[in-house]
């Protein structure tokens, strides 16, 4: 079967047409045997019919043995020969016209082969019967009409088939693109989840371990003193380790949907964090924390921003005082954390913590601004719109 005519519809159509062709070939051969007088013309007519039928059988079953264009060449020769040997060729020409469109491969080749068949049958008919007005009206006109109709119908069918194949190709491309997009979404989802887990680990476990290290070093250096400071530091180490263990269980087991912040108001949550920071570092902390009603995600984001900012103060700022302001504005909730430390050049900051804060706030439609300069301390400003939906 030609590649352009594949699919269940065309398979069923061609099977029916094959049955019709074999029936007509059989009837025409029987008519030649029964009606034609004995002689050389009868023999050659049967030979030509046998050549057409045999070639047709081979090209249908074994197209690699006999190419479709070779079959069409045999068909043109047979039609021309039969038209020369006997009248009534028009019936065979009309029966075989669809073959020119089925096997030619393109509409241009179909027009050429079918045109050659029409010209050949007309020319050999003129040689057999001679030119006359009756021949012109009964044979030439009817043959040209049939040929013209077949050309128009054939071109239309080829256009329909080409459009069908083009739609099938576009649909296949769309399916491949959708499959690739789905895989890309899965990969992006996995990457986003890894980034989220990395951010959570950095904001919880890593900060806790850093705090434990600092407290352990301080406790070790003060073991010889009797002021009880080392004991307090050891209790802080134990408390921090227990909190880190709880954080780890939350991250691994997803015990809470968003994890990391105890139930209660955001002000109370931040107050506990600031008290712990003062206890561990001895730095003076001033806080103005408004009671704000917000959802769990917003409370966690504010807590993580506070924890990251305080961790940076502890590690880098060499500050003596820290100020924290939590306020609700008409456009959302604001968190401001300032220190009087050594400051830094914000353009050179490439830390994971600041980048993680920005991404966490962006997921909630918020924003982060960090201002600092050498010797002038640092200001961290975070804003989250309370009414916005999380970005996806």
List the helices and strands and how they pair.
Elements: H1 8-35, H2 40-61, H3 68-85, H4 89-103, H5 107-129, H6 133-221, H7 229-253, H8 266-281, E1 284-289, H9 296-317, E2 321-329, E3 332-339, H10 352-363, E4 367-372, E5 378-384
Parallel strand pairs: 1-2
Antiparallel strand pairs: 2-3, 3-5, 4-5
Helix pairs in contact: 1-2, 2-3, 3-4, 3-5, 4-5, 4-6, 5-6, 6-7, 6-9, 8-9, 9-10
What would you say this structure looks like, in words?
The chain is 69% helix and 9% strand. Helix 4 (89-103) packs antiparallel against helix 5 (107-129) and helix 4 (89-103) runs parallel beside helix 6 (133-221). The chain is built from ten helices and five strands. Strand 4 (367-372) and strand 5 (378-384) form a beta hairpin.
Assembly state (oligomeric): single chain
Strand order of the largest sheet: 1-2-3-5-4
Helical stretch tally: 10
Q: Shape, please?
A: rod-shaped
Low-confidence stretches: 254-263, 388-392
* Average predicted confidence as pLDDT: 78
The end-to-end span amounts to 51 Å
Q: Any idea what the radius of gyration is?
A: 45 Å
Helix fraction, binned, reads 55-70%
- Characterize the largest beta sheet: strand count, sense, and whether it forms a barrel: 5 strands, mixed
């Amino acid at each position: 079967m030609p590649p352009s005519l594949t699919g269940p519809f065309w398979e069923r159509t061609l099977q029916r047409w094959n049955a019709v062709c074999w029936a007509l070939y059989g009837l025409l051969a029987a008519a030649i045997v029964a009606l034609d007088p004995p002689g050389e013309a009868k023999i050659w007519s049967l030979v030509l019919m046998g050549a057409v039928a045999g070639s047709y059988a081979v090209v249908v079953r074994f197209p690699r043995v006999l190419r479709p264009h070779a079959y069409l060449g045999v068909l043109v020769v047979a039609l021309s020969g039969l038209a020369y040997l006997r009248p009534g060729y028009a019936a065979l020409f009309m029966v075989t016209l669809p073959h020119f469109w089925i096997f030619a491969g393109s509409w241009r080749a179909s027009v050429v082969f079918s045109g050659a068949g029409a010209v050949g049958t007309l020319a050999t008919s003129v040689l057999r019967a001679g030119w006359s007005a009756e021949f012109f009206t009964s044979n030439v006109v009817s043959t040209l009409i049939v040929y013209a109709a077949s050309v128009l119908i054939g071109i239309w069918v080829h256009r329909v088939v080409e459009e069908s194949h083009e739609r099938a190709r576009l649909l296949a491309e769309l399916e491949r693109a959708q499959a690739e997009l789905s895989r890309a979404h899965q990969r992006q989802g996995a990457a986003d989840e890894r980034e989220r887990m990395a951010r959570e680990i950095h904001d919880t476990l890593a900060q806790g371990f850093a705090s434990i290290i600092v407290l352990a070093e301080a406790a070790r250096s003060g073991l010889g003193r009797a002021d009880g400071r080392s004991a307090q530091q050891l209790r802080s180490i134990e408390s921090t380790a227990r909190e880190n263990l709880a954080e780890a269980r939350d991250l691994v087991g997803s015990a809470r949907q968003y994890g990391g912040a105890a139930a209660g108001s955001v002000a109370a949550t931040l107050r506990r964090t600031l008290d712990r920071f003062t206890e561990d570092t001895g730095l003076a902390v001033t806080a103005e924390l408004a009671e704000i009603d917000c959802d769990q995600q917003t409370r966690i984001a504010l807590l993580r921003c506070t924890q990251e900012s305080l961790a940076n103060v502890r590690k880098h700022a060499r500050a003596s005082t820290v100020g924290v302001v939590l306020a609700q504005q008409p456009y959302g909730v604001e968190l401001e954390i300032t220190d009087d430390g050594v400051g830094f050049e914000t353009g050179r900051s490439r830390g994971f913590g600041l980048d993680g804060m920005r991404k966490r706030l962006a997921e909630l439609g918020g924003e982060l601004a960090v201002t600092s300069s050498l010797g002038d301390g640092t200001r961290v400003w975070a804003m989250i719109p309370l009414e916005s939906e999380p970005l996806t």
